[in-house]
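step 4 of 6: structure.
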Amino acid sequence: MRKADVVVIGGSAAGLTAAITCRRHYPQKSVLMIRKEEQVLIPCGIPYIFGTVAGPQKDIMSDAALEKNSIGLLIDEVSDIDPQGRVVITSGGEKVTYEKLIMAMGSDPMVLPIPGVDKKNVFTAKKEVTYLQKMLDTLDQSANLVIVGGGFIGVEFADECNKNRDINVSIVEMLPHCLMLAFDDELCTAAEEVVKTAGINIFAPEKVVAFEGDGKVSSARLESGKELPADMAILGIGAVASTTLAKKIGLELGPARGIKVNRYMRTSDDNIFACGDCADKWSFFDGSPSNIKLASIAAQEARIAGANLFGARRMNKGVVTVFSTVVGDKAFGLAGLSTLEAIKKGYNVVVGEAEAPNRHPGGMGGMALLKVKLVFEIGTGVILGGQIMGAKSGGELLNAISACIQQGMSVDDVAAFPVGTHPALTASPIAYQLTNAAEMAIKAMKSA
Amino acid sequence: MRKADVVVIGGSAAGLTAAITCRRHYPQKSVLMIRKEEQVLIPCGIPYIFGTVAGPQKDIMSDAALEKNSIGLLIDEVSDIDPQGRVVITSGGEKVTYEKLIMAMGSDPMVLPIPGVDKKNVFTAKKEVTYLQKMLDTLDQSANLVIVGGGFIGVEFADECNKNRDINVSIVEMLPHCLMLAFDDELCTAAEEVVKTAGINIFAPEKVVAFEGDGKVSSARLESGKELPADMAILGIGAVASTTLAKKIGLELGPARGIKVNRYMRTSDDNIFACGDCADKWSFFDGSPSNIKLASIAAQEARIAGANLFGARRMNKGVVTVFSTVVGDKAFGLAGLSTLEAIKKGYNVVVGEAEAPNRHPGGMGGMALLKVKLVFEIGTGVILGGQIMGAKSGGELLNAISACIQQGMSVDDVAAFPVGTHPALTASPIAYQLTNAAEMAIKAMKSA
């Protein structure tokens, strides 16, 4: 019988961050990570192995952080848990006792329940090195690729698979536009323009109803009757929380079908915490169930869970979605609620927009336009969301917006925010997008 | 007699932003800007006209914002004001009545009180096109340039003047290191390394005691007795608030020798507001007088002043210094207090640092290391400051730190902050510098 004070199941963004956080907060406690993967992929980097970084071996998370933080590692699959005896049992026959357990098993890609989905060369975005290598090999021999789902995973896959290859890539999206669950319409349209300019076909609104082919996929049949040739297909339609183990030991699930956790990331078992894609989530704004699954949220929850193991220290205030993507050379990002989401939640909203070069004067190297769009509640003036589009510096500007949202700042607070600017790094202080977008929202409020 | 509801004196970062803000908040009020310059330079861009952007004409602020916002423009110098009659008088003979007046006259470069400072080819960083063109012409004919002052202006001038020129550039700095009033030692040293690698000489701690030469400067004599050949010299030793006009009409000055303003940017005359370099400033932290002069702060104060003209709406909470610079290809930035400043103000501090690539995996294009260092008060855990060094994406990350400071966030709030990450835009969620620097500060607190 092996023994560890803290056992962490899972080695991706949530598991690794939780283990490190535990070591930092409770240096006297021993931590053992149990994961089934020999090598762990950087999850957000997966689309890029098909283009920019060339291969899964270029997207591996180093285990150096484990050694540096004295975190033990057992590569094995957890097959069962005895919550009363506080024992983790692996399929390799190991038994490990724990004081506190962190479940960070992640999620599994969703599979479309349609005929032919089990044909050869129909893939999902699995986080497994050999599987992804097989995808890459198949891609290199394919002339026609169909991607099902135009969310950010689908768009990133399409963009990368299309790079430096003589291939015909098509995205099939159910909604009228790609990325519609993430961004306001004009950002979706702008992203689609970039995708189309790169030669990628978009079919939207459209559905794949079946994959055809003799053993191997040869085409995708669409609801409209169209038939797209396809010697490879990738499903990017979302992921479901990995809860098999949790259900097996009787942990409660939450309304978003993840492992139920309280605001301290504790499950229905006092000694078991959960974080990341496998944990249930709720909105920062109205507490409603949230299906969002992002490595950044996983890491955030892991920082909460890891710090709370032996005493509640940090509260999970719920998901403030903050994420970004790059299409072509253009960054797109959202923090908080999009305009549509805010309206759906019942807010009376007002928006403000500002666009400016990310350098000043424009002749400074690396100049690109960057647009910021902010959404406020009209009565209180509280910021609800922000979107960025354009220059890559917007990726970090988005985190300033996130801070404004998380702190419930008012439109005047944002407008008179103490920003730092520099010719080679940002817009000018006069044209700075964040403050000006807030001013434009006030102008809109006044004329409303 | 001309008439405007609002008259703004000055057309740089403060004046222009105040005028625009007034138009946005009070669309029914007419606004007239009076400035003496035919063309206004982008202030932060001035060092770059000597290298990257090649010439003052590439660093001009467009007047398009005036037209777009229906702001009148009078190019003339204000020679007097009648505060009782609410009349502005110009040296061109114009008289303009106002309801509210905004003073945004900026600052003037300081001149060293040493022998020979009035010799030909000894320059300051004046914001005048013809003066700067003369500097550039002189620079192009110079073999030896001495820069007095190793603050960020001095370092930026040195770096730019040294670009694509066969010239010997030297910085003479009073303090032991360049940039010491801005950053912690290790950032100063790192910046100096970049400067030296570019072939620039640094003399520190050292003082220029006289300029020698027959009419024209030919050398700078140092306190140590050294004599540096110099056919050109630039003084970058700071600036003083432009208060001549304010003193003439009896406005009170503040402890930092700027025009005294209350928290709404109102001067001792109820109908006159001041903002930017000419206005007095105080620290966000302890309210002590602040001599900091930055275009970003000027614009922030202008957004407060402009919105408050006909009813107090925004409060100036004092200066949270947020600024950044680029030396070579490396960004350096500060938000709030450096470690030394925090200690000087009497705080018991703890610091946390984290460094990581600004991309994940590392093979993504544009990868560079970015370090974040945070300073917290040890008893309350409240964030006091942050510094960034490395990748240019740090310029906007600094604004996320600024938000944390302005909102008085605790070390746990920062550690569990909802960040957005993306392979092509930021560090990985696990290694993200801001959250990890906070965790390292907690670790340091625990072992303190």
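step 5 of 6: annotate
 - Residues 150 and 178 of chain A are 5 Å apart (CA to CA).
 - The domain at 122-237 of chain A is CATH 3.50.50.60 (FAD/NAD(P)-binding domain).
step 6 of 6: archive
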